Structure prediction request, 60 residues.
Amino acid sequence: MDDLNAILEPGMRVRHPGQPDWGTGQVQSNIGGKVTVNFPDAGKIVIDSSRIALLPVFEP
Prediction:
C-alpha cells in the first residue's frame, strides 16, 4: 500500500478513520513516516503512516 499520508503538510486538516470522536485535527509535521497531528479532543498524537491512512478534510 502506498503511503497516502505523504501528501500531508503542516497546516492541513485531517481526521483519524478509527477515532471520529477526536474531531478534525491539524497536521503539525510529517517527517519520516511519522505524522504529528493536534486533535481538539485528543491532543497531540503521532501517527505511524505505515499503519494508519489519515483522511484529509477540505471543508472550512
Summary: The chain has a mean pLDDT of 92. Residues 4-57 form a domain with the SH3 type barrels. fold (CATH 2.30.30.30).
